[in-house]
Amino acid sequence: MSPTPTSLEASPTVNLLDLAAASVACTVSASRAILKIAETIQQKDQTDGDADAKNTRLKQDGSFVTDADFAAQGVIVQAIRTVSKSVRIVGEESEEEMREHIGQHEFLDDNILQRTHAELRMRYAAKNNPQSAGNGGTLPLAQTDSSYDKNDLSAFEGTDSSDDPEECIVDASRVSIIVDPLDGTKSYAYGEYDCVSILIAIVLDNTPWFGVIGKPFGYTNVTSILDSGCACIYGGPLLDGVYVAGGRPVLAPKPVDIATAALEDLPRTVISGSRSKGVVQDFCIHLGEKGLVYPEPMLISGAGEKSLRLMLQRKNEALWFFPKPGTSLWDVAAPDALLRTLGGKMTDKFGNEMDYSKSREEAENVKGVVACIDAKLHAECIRLFQEGDWSERS
C-alpha cells in the first residue's frame, strides 16, 4: 500500500531559467552529434526516397528517421534530465529510443552551459528594456569572444540559480519539454542541410514559455555560438523577447500597409513543396487575389525553417499556411513561443490555440497549423478560410 502524502512533502520544483539554459546549450552538443553522423551518410541510391540504409529508414507512419534523430534526442533529454527528473518530455522519437541513446553520444560542454546561464540571466534582467539587451558589450555566447577557454569557468562563477526570482521557480508538474531533435529529416538524409533545425520548447501550463530553434549547420547572417558553427535563436514570454544566441535581439517587424504596398513588398506565404498542391496552394492563391499577400507562395522545407523565415523577414515572409494533418506538436511548440513574443500568432485552421497537453501518441496537429508574424493578417486569413468551403476541402 502506497504511503499517504503529508503536507510536509513538497512537490518537485524546477527553475525555468536553468531549463532554458540547458535547452540552448544542448543544441550545440546535439549539433555535433548530427554533424558527425552526416559525415557518414553516403549520397547514393536515393531515388524513390531511398538513402543509406545504415542511417536512414522509414517509420511506421511513413516518415523518415535517421540515426542522427535518435542521437540528438538522446543528448537533449540527458541535458534536460540534469536539471529536472520530473518535468514531462514529449519527443518526436519514442521513449525507448530516448533511453537507449542517453549518454551514448555528445555531452554538454560545461563552458557553453555556464556561458548560456550567464547570457540568459542578462537577458532576463534586461527584459523590461529589450532594445538594450545584447548591445552592452560582448555577450557570453558571442562568436567574437576571444577569451573562450573550455577549461576556465572562473569568469562565470555566481551564475547559478540562487538569486533567481521566485517567479522562475515553478512546480515541475506544470512544465512540459517538447522536442524535435532533427526537423527536416528527409532533407538531412539527402544532404540538403539548410532547412535542418533543432526545436526545443518549454511549455508552462499549456502555454509555450520558451523556445529554441537551433541550426546545426549554421545560418546565413546569424552568428554561431562561439566557435561551434551552430546558430541559435531563442526566447519567448520567459524573457519577453527573442534573441540570437550571443548576438542581437530579433525585433518584431513593422506591419505592411497592404493598401499602399507595392506588389514586391507584400507579405509572402511559405509552404512545403512536397505538400503544396490542393487546398494549400489554392487558398494561398486566393489570398493573393485578395491583395493580402504576394500571389506566388515560397516553397520552403522544414517547420523550423519556415518559422525562422517569418521571424527574420528576409523576403517579407509572413504566413505559414497548412490546414491539414501532417505536422505535430514538436514542429510548432518552439516557434509558437517565439512568434507570440514578436506579436505573431499560431493556431489551428479554426483559430484555436494548440493543445500542448496531449500525449506523444496524440501529438499530430490534425486540424493543421496557421502561423503568421502579423496577428492581424492571421485573423484575416482564418476569417477568409472559414468564410468559404475551404475547411471541408482540407
Main attributes of the structure:
394 residues, Fructose-1,6-Bisphosphatase, Chain A, domain 1, 2 domains, 16 strands, globular, disordered N terminus
Describe how the helices and strands are arranged.
Elements: E1 13-15, H1 16-38, E2 56-58, E3 64-66, H2 67-83, E4 88-91, H3 95-101, H4 110-125, E5 169-171, E6 175-183, H5 185-189, E7 197-204, E8 207-215, E9 231-236, E10 241-244, E11 249-250, E12 268-271, H6 279-289, E13 298-299, H7 303-312, E14 317-322, H8 329-341, E15 345-347, E16 369-372, H9 375-387, H10 390-393
Parallel strand pairs: 4-6, 12-13, 12-14
Antiparallel strand pairs: 1-5, 2-3, 6-7, 7-8, 8-9, 9-10, 10-11, 14-16, 15-16
Quick take:
The chain is of the alpha+beta class.
Outline the structure in words.
The structure is a single chain. Helix content is 30%, strand content 19%. With 394 residues, it is of the alpha+beta class. It folds into two domains: 13-250, Fructose-1,6-Bisphosphatase, subunit A, domain 1 (Fructose-1,6-Bisphosphatase, Chain A, domain 1, 2-Layer Sandwich), CATH 3.30.540; 263-393, D-Maltodextrin-Binding Protein, domain 2 (3-Layer(aba) Sandwich). It has a seven-stranded mixed beta sheet with strand order 4-6-7-8-9-10-11, sandwiched between helices. It has a five-stranded mixed beta sheet with strand order 13-12-14-16-15, with helices on both faces. Strands 1-5 form a two-stranded antiparallel sheet. Helix 1 (16-38) runs antiparallel to helix 2, helix 2 (67-83) packs across helix 3 and helix 7 packs parallel to helix 8. The model is unreliable at 1-8 and 42-54 (pLDDT under 50).
